[in-house]
Amino acid sequence: MISADWLYFLLMTVIFVLVFLTPVILAYVKGSKDLGKALNLYSTEIEKALRKYKDIVIKGKGVKNLLELLYNVHLPKINSDIQIEVSLIERRTYVYYLYKIFGKLPDILILRGVIERKPATSLVIIPRKKKKIISKIMEYLSQLQEIRIKSLSQEILFSADDSRYAIKYLSKKVNENVYNLKERLNFIFVDYTPPHIEINCEITEKTASQVINFAISLMMTLLQNIREVKMPGRRTEALKFIRKTIAELRQQTR
């Protein structure tokens, strides 16, 4: 005959499972489903955006642990390569859904471009509201030349080690795409070492279509503009630090 103490223990065990383990299991199941849905959406939007451009070859596509979507794209006409990465925030935990009630939890879209020769000059573009990034690199940004762009400089910081050449990157189409991305943009970085161009944006399922289209358009235009500026440049210590610091900050936020 089962004792009262044993029945009590069984009852408390069942309650523990229901109260604590059930949310964990449900969050994992729902999170896996939501990750799959987001991956499919992002993949569809990326491929739809790429189809707008001629002479593009998708060399590879991959998914890692439902948390990373990766495309490798080649542009034979200008002998350049683009890597498109979507880094998805982990959804298979109930903490994600609790936090989502109180704040935004975007995924990250990263475009990396590699050209056949190094750019003429560097370029750093950061929205001024990204105070954490700017504060970390301000000492080194002060060693670069700020570029004033009418209607954009009040909200976005443009800096380069040689503004005479960097201004040639900033065509009307580039500036329009930067403006369209400003609410989602983390930073844009043009450097002498590969990847020569990096565009980093926040992305959600609601904003996917717009952000992906603007970011790919921006990358395509920058690749072309940078190729047309012939003067080769030299990387400075400030650029090395800026790139390293931005990479570290990106890791801390994931």
Structure report:
By secondary structure, the protein is an alpha+beta fold. The protein has one domain (4-252). It has 7 helices and 9 strands, in the order H-E-E-E-H-E-E-H-E-E-H-H-E-E-H-H. The protein has a 9-stranded antiparallel beta sheet, with helices on both faces. Strand 2 and strand 3 (80-87) form a beta hairpin. The longest helix is centred in the first third of the chain and has 47 residues, at 4-50. It is elongated, with a radius of gyration of 23 Å. The model has no long low-confidence stretch (mean pLDDT 88).
Query: Beta fraction of the residues?
Result: 15-25%
First-residue to last-residue Cα separation: 54 Å
Instruction: Specify the structural class.
Output: alpha+beta
* Helix content estimate: 40-55%
As for the number of domains, it is 1
Query: Order of strands side by side in the largest beta sheet?
Result: 1-2-3-4-9-8-5-7-6
* Extended strand count: 9
- The SSE string, one letter per element, is HEEEHEEHEEHHEEHH
Overall mean pLDDT score? 88
- The assembly state of the depicted protein chains is single chain
Major sheet: size, sense and barrel closure? 9 strands, antiparallel
* Shape estimate: elongated
**What count of helical segments does DSSP give?**
7
Radius of gyration: 23 Å
Low-confidence stretches: none
Write the layout of secondary structure elements.
Blueprint: H1 4-50, E1 57-64, E2 68-75, E3 80-87, H2 94-102, E4 107-114, E5 123-127, H3 131-141, E6 145-146, E7 156-160, H4 163-169, H5 172-181, E8 185-190, E9 197-203, H6 208-228, H7 237-252
Antiparallel strand pairs: 1-2, 2-3, 3-4, 4-9, 5-7, 5-8, 6-7, 8-9
